[in-house]
Hints:
Elements: H1 2-17, H2 20-23, H3 29-32, E1 42-48, H4 54-67, E2 73-79, H5 89-94, E3 102-106, E4 112-115, H6 127-139, H7 142-151, E5 157-161, H8 166-186, E6 199-203, H9 212-217, E7 222-223, E8 226-227, E9 235-240, E10 244-251, H10 257-267, H11 291-301, H12 308-319, H13 352-401
Helix pairs in contact: 1-13, 4-6, 8-10
Amino acid sequence: MAExxxxxxxxxxxCCLHPFPAFACRYNVRxxxxxxxxxxxxxxxxxxxxxxxxxxxxxxxxxxxxxxxxSNIQFEIVDVNQQRDHLAIKYLDSxxxxxxxxxxxxxxxxxxxxxxxxxxxxxxxxxxxxxxSAIDNVxxxxxxNEILQQVSKAYGVVLLIEAADQxxxxxxxxxxxxxxxxxxxxxxxxxxxxxxxxxxxxxxxESLSQxxxxxxxxxxxxxxxxxxxxxxxxxxxxxxxxxxWVGPIFKGEQITQDNLTAVLFVIGEDCECDLDHRWLQGxxxxxxxxxxxxxxxxxxxxxxxxxxxxxxxxxxxxxxxxSSYPGVPLGYQELVVEPGPASTSDERPATSxxxxxxxxxxxxxxxxxxxxxxxxxxxAGATVLITAIGLYIVFRAARRKS
Length: 402
């Protein structure tokens, strides 16, 4: 009985001395963004019909599954004659697809994109090569590869998609660089250190034709290698973690230092209780996340985001914030960083000291909440400890009398 009492006392003391891991979040938004819980997958549907040769249908399925293993895209083969009630059949009508085999890429929010897996007049023996090339285009592009390399080791990426107007491009670029510089200057005050500041990645007008899938995944349509109906304005979006899209797309006059900074600072926050947890996992770009990127990310983070224990913990953290998948990245209908208008000539822009003061005030408020929470935990732990010691003393005194 005495040994059991000692064990109870030791357990109580351990609980009191180690309250923080149990109650405080030990991850920041960037770290959470590297964990893939499989809740926002893209789907590639391969369509065949009764006239599709069996060897073509088999190759379609085997090649696609193998090629997509290290990606966030799930493949499914659909026979349009035998599976007429399949949910993906509707994409054939909306995209006016009438020949098979064919393929459609569908994003988590329901956008669809026809993926050409055959060439007009090509022989059946050329199908495999055409299919492999099509899947490679779905999984990678020059700018997506650059984004993946940067987010795996840096704070995040500001993606700037240039317009035809060079003056607007210049203005947007200056705003992005100023936002990155501001965040870099505040990184020493982050709840957890991040080694490398945000990076600017630019998509020029000349490279738009190579980035059709990237632009589509962001909800931007292209026509003749230009942004459809919107090519007169540059666009900017913030990416982090496993190439996740966070915040709204800013365009034209909305691309300001303040707007970009507001989104960038979210990435460095810890996932404490007062942060809306829908910010923790934005929709990923469709891409291949191979072993090299995984190793690079793990080295940057100091832990393996594919570890099952880590995934379970992150899943629990995200589950506290919302019970439903937000659809488009971060549920923009509710989670919107309101774009502010460009400053007029009569408005004096805030100085760097004023911006830093505002940032520090916000940080002090978060620190106050955090330390208040920790103080409550310590008091509760101390109460348990004192009670345990009192019971132990009473127990020992009772034993001596007996």
